[in-house]
Every structure is written in structure tokens, then in C-alpha cells.
Design goal:
It is built from 11 helices and 3 strands. The protein has 249 residues and is mostly helical. It has a 3-stranded mixed sheet. The two termini are 30 Å apart.
């Protein structure tokens, strides 16, 4: 279950509608507990829950009776605040990297509800490509599968951008040829061309020129390939430094 706050933050708070109801009934002050972690499940959590319930009782003196009635009517178990909070924390940590929430209007990522640290999102994004890249390095018979799959090409090329090895040139040339031949290609055309050119091999020039001649090259900002083979490496380094780089951070 997804919760979005009035100030634009969002996050998962439960794994099901029943869990969300249990949270709302048993831990109504949960929005004020988001800064806590399971390590605080002792006195800090108990004190925060007690203070929250006391504030609610000022307007709902029969809070406990209402809770019991709702649980009975909905056939929900009576779980402890510690158990409810642990489930809330687990759900919150699934918001990223399992899910990336975007604003519908601007397409920007929503702020998270909680401040708890996660592994960098880039690790999750790059993981499939790095796995594929490792397999392709060990087994060239798998190259046609990745070269013919637009999504796999994209993830492998991105992985190769951040994990560069000299032995990748034959694979990169295969991927570049596939990008150039794909009418619906992505920015992978530019990335593949730069990665190939960075190896500085003059025999790659015909392939690089073919990539530049592809109709989609202009759309993705692939400048004209220099005439002199020696200038191609500087051309690639310039694009790499200004638009790509090898640091995912």
C-alpha cells in the first residue's frame, strides 16, 4: 500500500490492505515515528507511541474502545506497537530500490517518507547489466542474444561504461553494430560509439562512420567522426569527459 503525504513525500507503508488497516488502527500516530528504526523498538518507540496516543485521546477519549471495536468488526488481530512498527519499517525500505515513485506532472522522483539509508539506487539499476556483462565476457556464444535485445543492449552498455576492460572491444563493436542497425535505437548508439572509439583502434573507423551515418545519430548527439584516425581517440575522450564518464555517482 502506497501513502503520499501532503508535502509530496511518498512510500510504501504496508504489504496489503489488511496490514494498512492494522497500522492505521493500532498505530495511528505512525507518521510521527518514521525517523525511528527497529533499533529504537524499546523505550524510544514506546515513549513515542504513548505520546502519540495521548495526543489523540484529547479529541477521542474512547480511543481504546474504538480500536477494539474496529478490530472486532474487521476481524483483525491485536498486534503490539513493536510488531506494527517493524512491518511499517520493512515496507518503507521496499520503496527504494524495489520501486521508484515519480510525480505524474514533472516525472521527478518523489521524496521518501523516511530518512533511513539505502544502498545507492545506481547499484540496483546497474546490477542486471553487470551480471549480463560478466556472462558475455566469459561466453561469446551469448553475444547474439544480448545484441539482438534492445533492453539488454542498453543495460550491458551502461555496465561497460562503468566497468571498462580492454578485452571488451569485440563485444562493444558487436553492440555498436546492433545499435546502428536498430531504427528505434536509444542513446546507446552514442555510448557504444564512444566506448569503441576510446580503444583507439583504427580498424574500428568504418563501423564508427556507419554509426554516425545512422538516421538516429543526430538525435542522440553523435558528432561527426574525425577524418584522421589519430583524432578519433581525442574525439571520444572529449565526449566521454563532457557527457559520459566512468563514475556512476
Amino acid at each position: 500500500m502506497l501513502y503520499a503525504s501532503a508535502d509530496g513525500a511518498a512510500g510504501l507503508v504496508a504489504a496489503s490492505a489488511d496490514e494498512a488497516l492494522e497500522l492505521a488502527i493500532g498505530l495511528p500516530g505512525w507518521p510521527g515515528l518514521l525517523h525511528l528504526s527497529p533499533a529504537d523498538a524499546g523505550t524510544r518507540l514506546a515513549a513515542a507511541v504513548a505520546a502519540s496516543d495521548e495526543a489523540i485521546r484529547k479529541s477521542l477519549p474512547d480511543l481504546d474502545a474504538r480500536r477494539a471495536a474496529l478490530r472486532g468488526a474487521l476481524d483483525l488481530p491485536d498486534r503490539s506497537p513493536g510488531e506494527l512498527f517493524a512491518r511499517l519499517h520493512t515496507a518503507l525500505l521496499r520503496t527504494e530500490p524495489d520501486h521508484l515513485l515519480l510525480e505524474a506532472a514533472g516525472g521527478r522522483a518523489c521524496a521518501r517518507l523516511d530518512p533511513h539509508p539505502r544502498p545507492p539506487l545506481r547499484e540496483t539499476v546497474l546490477s542486471p547489466g553487470l551480471t549480463d556483462l560478466a556472462q558475455l565476457r566469459d561466453d561469446p556464444s551469448l553475444w547474439p542474444r544480448s545484441a539482438g535485445d534492445k533492453a539488454r543492449r542498453a543495460t550491458v552498455l551502461r555496465a561497460a561504461q562503468f566497468d571498462r576492460q580492454d578485452r571488451d572491444l569485440p563485444l562493444l563493436r558487436r553492440l555498436l553494430a546492433a545499435e546502428a542497425a536498430s531504427p528505434g535505437t536509444s542513446e546507446g548508439l552514442r555510448l557504444a560509439a564512444v566506448l569503441v572509439a576510446l580503444h583507439g583502434h583504427s580498424e574500428a573507423l568504418p563501423l564508427l562512420r556507419a554509426a554516425h551515418a545512422a538516421p538516429q545519430a543526430a538525435r542522440w548527439g553523435l558528432p561527426e567522426i574525425p577524418e584522421r584516425p589519430g583524432a578519433v581517440l581525442e574525439w571520444a575522450r572529449g565526449l566521454d569527459g563532457s557527457q559520459l564518464g566512468d563514475d556512476p555517482a
